[in-house]
Specification:
It is built from 36 helices and 3 strands. Among the domains are: 124 residues; 76 residues; 69 residues, 2-Layer Sandwich (Herpes Virus-1), CATH 3.30.40.10; 136 residues, no CATH class. A 3-stranded antiparallel sheet has the order 2-1-3. By secondary structure, the protein is mainly α. A hairpin with a 5-residue loop joins strand 1 and strand 2. It catalyses: S-ubiquitinyl-[E2 ubiquitin-conjugating enzyme]-L-cysteine + [acceptor protein]-L-lysine = [E2 ubiquitin-conjugating enzyme]-L-cysteine + N(6)-ubiquitinyl-[acceptor protein]-L-lysine.
């Protein structure tokens, strides 16, 4: 089988499952749902590198899932039973991989497809892979026999163990025994000489079947076996004829009622949280229809007819019916906006766990000088800083609209109070109790339980910082991640009143930027970077080298958060020296060509250019000036404004910097924007052109060959100039353009 891996995908993995049927059913349910939309995902052709990699990873993960189902269909029942925990881990690994791949793909496909993917991600997050009790007992009894000294084990003990396991696994006929022996023999042929431990286990299982096969095949009465140890084993249910093909119609194991079609959003096919009516008369989930309109669509997703307007009218009647229906069943309706936030955080978590392993001790080689860093607060620039994304705002402020009495699956208000009290006195608990308390709080937050989030206050932050410090010292990654997620939720909930952090707290958080939870640490640092009081402390704590290290990785999901932190910190005048010291400018240049991050990058450079050392560093980085010129030519309007501001600050530095800016494409863009740009960019570019004109005139006075570069150029002079070196071409273009247009005076 291992030599024909490519064939696994095509096998009929829906054949009868021997063992772990519930897990395989759950796994197949997701594989079928993804398969239904896989061709649509391929047709969407995600062109970014991340999207292509995610698509390939998704296909690979689906193949692994099918191979696992095939394994449970063909392998030895006894061996599958004793390796049950490993099968569960493989299912969970596939579950996480599917969730990560789909989260990465979701942002690269059209809205309707993204909605379907969102539904799959939501269900994946809550999926469980249960072990059937009979199989678990069979595995335990065989494992117990394997752990004994075989030479000392008596035949009666072997017989009792193998017979009970065979009965649990329905190996109760001569044909079943024969099939099991053949399965073990095939496994032995596969592992022979490769895995001594596995080979030894398989040989022992084969020995048991060979020795006691006839007795097992007689099909003992159930009660006979139960009497051997009534205290250890429960009575076994009669054999059920439920091991049918996986493609059979299945009942819902959870007994959940059928969701009324009227309550489903036509886009996501999920229960609506905030139903709204559009001009076509159809009702949709507000989150998804807004996303549909924001992508430029002006038609109804159901009727495909063009809409007269894009107004959204709340469907209060529908919302009341949904609330009543869900309240009667004790269901909680998740907010899609909050789910989008948690999906993003999950993606960061998965990517950061893979990306930060290489950070390690390499950061110790970067010694950040902090002698010149002022720890005073800087409030002058805070008002102009970048606001949070909508997803962050919705996470922090959008209230849950479900009534408390409808949340039957959650704890009571008393439980919230107890949880808050435990969180506040975290340090007084044992380490195990601390981890459990923080983990319970995190689970409540991930369930989007607004009542739980409201119960947690900023008084819990200091105990959480202490918890994170202890978790780091004990190398407990799960505790680190749980603590970071809870802290992030508290900070997002209390953005308007961020509590006071001392230097030690900032240092603890900064140290997590080079850990297995970099994604969560970046998100926390981003929240703090909006606060003017913490900027100097963050720089002093050494966050810059870590952030630059993040920007140097291939995990784009982390780049945006890192850029936002840099932007917020760039308002602090003390950062400029460190940017030059760490050779940051060349590291930022590639992002000027990234249409998603160029806006952040050019703003960072603009803010940093308030420092002379940074202006010199930018001027000395030729690729930076060239990239800024490209942004000036083809960037968005706001990006062009900031690019012009950067060039103006460089040209004000002196004649040498002006000559570096005198590139033909840059001058073309300056002339064009001075005539066609908005009022702000017109003023900046016109001032730039005047400075360049003065520099050119000064050069003309000192060099006779450059006299032909005057603004009032005759045709003979122009022809003469064309014979000059190509390096003079930009100056000729400047003269020609300016002579034919009047430049506003300032």
């Amino acid at each position: 089988m291992e030599n024909n891996g490519a064939e696994i995908v095509e096998l009929t993995y829906y054949c009868k499952i021997k063992v772990h049927r519930l897990m395989c059913l759950e796994l197949k349910k997701f594989i079928d749902r993804i398969t239904e939309i896989f061709s649509s995902i391929e047709s969407a052709r995600p062109r970014c590198k991340t999207g292509i990699q995610a698509l390939c990873s998704l296909q690979d993960t689906m193949d692994k899932a099918k191979a696992l189902i095939q394994l449970c269909s063909e392998s030895s029942k006894l061996y599958l039973a004793i390796t049950a925990e490993r099968i569960v881990l493989r299912c969970e690994k596939i579950q996480n991989a599917l969730q990560l791949c789909l989260s990465q793909i979701q942002s690269t496909v059209p809205t309707l497809l993204a909605a379907k993917i969102s539904g799959i991600i939501h269900d994946l997050r809550s999926a469980k892979f249960p072990l059937e009790s009979a199989e678990e007992e069979a595995g335990k009894v065989v494992l117990a026999l394997l752990r004994q000294d075989i030479s000392e084990s008596r035949s009666v003990l072997e017989l009792e163990a193998i017979q009970l396991a065979a009965l649990k696994l329905k190996i109760t006929s001569p044909a079943a025994v024969l099939l099991e022996k053949r399965s073990i023999r095939r496994l032995l042929d596969t592992v022979s000489g490769k895995d001594p431990i596995k080979e030894k286990i398989l040989k022992f299982l084969f020995y048991l079947l060979s020795k006691y096969g006839e007795i097992i095949g007689q099909g003992w009465n159930v009660s006979t076996v139960v009497q051997h140890d009534k205290s250890s084993y429960q009575s076994i249910e009669p054999e059920q004829h439920a091991e049918n093909a996986l493609d059979e119609t299945r009942a819902n194991d959870s007994g959940a009622p059928e969701l009324p079609a009227e309550f489903k959003c036509p886009i996501s096919m999920r229960l609506m949280y905030d139903p709204v009516i559009i001009a076509s008369g159809k009702t949709f989930e507000r989150f998804w229809i807004e996303k549909w309109f924001n992508e430029g669509n002006k038609t109804c997703p159901v009727t495909h007819m063009k809409l007269d307007n894009l107004y959204l009218t709340p469907n209060s009647a529908m919302k009341g019916l949904i609330s009543k229906w869900s309240s009667e069943l004790g269901l909680t309706i998740p907010d899609p906006c909050l789910e989008a936030h948690f999906a993003s955080l999950s993606s960061l978590k998965s990517q950061s766990s893979n990306s930060i392993a290489s950070f390690g001790s390499s950061m110790n080689q970067l010694c950040l000088q902090i002698s010149s860093v002022s720890l005073c607060s800087s409030v002058t620039n805070y008002g102009s800083e970048m606001s949070d994304d909508k997803s962050d705002e919705s996470f922090g402020h959008r209230p849950s609209q479900m009534n408390a009495e409808s949340q039957g699956f959650h704890h009571s208000a008393d439980c919230y109070d107890n949880m808050l009290a435990s969180l506040s006195r975290l340090s007084s608990l044992s380490w195990g109790s601390q981890c459990k308390t923080v983990g319970d709080v995190k689970d409540q937050l991930q369930d989007n339980n607004q009542a739980c989030r409201n119960a947690i206050s900023i008084s819990c932050i200091k105990p959480l910082i202490k918890f994170l410090k202890d978790a780091q010292e004990s190398s407990d990654v799960k505790a680190q991640r749980d603590g970071a997620e809870v802290l992030l939720a508290i900070l997002n909930e209390n953005r308007s009143e961020i509590p006071s952090f001392d230097e030690d707290g900032i240092y603890v958080l900064a140290s997590y930027l080079d850990s297995d939870i970099t994604g969560e640490a970046l998100a926390i640092m981003e929240v703090l970077s909006y606060q003017p009081n913490y900027k100097s402390m963050m720089v002093a704590s050494g966050v810059l080298p870590s952030i630059l290290k993040v920007l140097n990785t291939q995990f784009r999901a982390l780049h945006r958060t890192a850029m936002k932190i840099l932007y917020n910190l760039s308002h602090n005048g003390d950062i400029g020296y460190h940017i030059v010291y760490l050779d940051c400018i060349p590291k930022l240049v590639p992002f000027l060509g990234d249409h998603k991050l160029a806006q952040f990058c050019i703003k960072i450079i603009k803010n940093l250019c308030a420092t002379q050392e940074v202006r010199i560093a930018v001027a000395e980085t030729s690729s930076c000036i060239s990239a800024i010129g490209t942004l000036l030519e083809s960037g968005r309007e706001e990006e062009q404004v900031h690019a012009a501001d950067v060039l103006l600050s460089l040209c004000q530095e002196g004649a040498e910097c002006c000559r570096l800016v005198m590139i033909e494409t840059i001058i073309q863009s300056l002339v064009f924007l001075s005539l066609n740009g908005n009022s702000r960019v017109k003023g900046t570019t016109s001032e730039l052109l005047q400075i360049l004109e003065r520099i050119k005139d000064d050069s003309s006075e000192c060099s006779t060959p450059k006299a032909c570069l005057g603004l009032d150029m005759s045709s003979e002079a122009v022809n003469h100039h064309k014979e000059k070196k190509s390096s003079f071409k930009p100056f000729w273009f400047l003269g020609k353009k300016i002579s034919s247009h009047s430049i506003p005076s300032y």
